[in-house]
Amino acid sequence: MRILLALLIGIYAFGTDVCEQKEAEIFLYVEKYADIYKNKNLNLSEEEKYKKAVADCNARDEKACLYIYNNFIIDGNFKFEENIFNLIEILNNVGIIIEIAQPSSNKELNSLISFNSFKNSLEVIDYVLSKTNDKKIIEELKALKKRNTISIFLNGNGCPAYSNGKLESDTIKMPCLCKKNSAYLLLEPDNIRQAFLNLKLLCDKYKDSVSCGAVGGFYENGQGVRVDFKQAKKYYGLACDGGYQYGCDGYKRMMGY
């Protein structure tokens, strides 16, 4: 489990290849529409604007949802939302509304924003679970966590279809989304093989250095594939060449192979 968590952290902490450009695009996209919503409501105080945005987002106003996303996830501004369950529900609603938003030309960005909303909701849930002993709250939060995790998996259409231990295509429609979704696949033992194949494809075809490092870890530790130190060395080397220190460290361990 510690190995899987290390891989999981790596995917998020150093995801600067297939995700780097998309994250920059998300920032500009969200900022644009958040500013449009903000400018439409200049007569309102910040707190009034926030409350209106929540109501408008629930009514499927995408600009309002992006305004909330900008406040919560980009700016880290939570000062107008003290109820933790409200915060979780709002993040969930943003994820749902943005995922089904039009036009389809923004599908990849919307899917990534939706994913990030659900992911942040899960992080809030995990934080509260670590701080409470209230059995009722724990039960409610675990139910929410299960629902959100399912939403993330359903959102993971950026990856190729998977069946019988193989990917059905060597093309990834949304590489960044696939990379992020693969991290969550690692949380379930039955999905590790699929995560391995996704990340291997991201390395082999899309040259994502973090994915290469993760694949090296899979080969070294026999996660989703048989132990193969030569392959581990190869993929760690590719990761290191791409500037990922985890890969360089792994390559050193494999020097005798």
TrEMBL record:
What InterPro entries does the annotation carry? Sel1-like, TPR-like_helical_dom_sf
Q: Which GO terms describe its biological process?
A: response to antibiotic
Give the SUPFAM superfamilies listed for this entry.
HCP-like
Provide the catalytic activity annotation.
a beta-lactam + H2O = a substituted beta-amino acid
Q: Which UniProt keywords apply?
A: Antibiotic resistance, Disulfide bond
The protein's superkingdom reads Bacteria
Q: What are the protein's GO molecular function terms?
A: beta-lactamase activity
Assigned EC number: 3.5.2.6
Protein name, entry field? beta-lactamase
- Organism from which the protein derives: Campylobacter sp. CCS1377
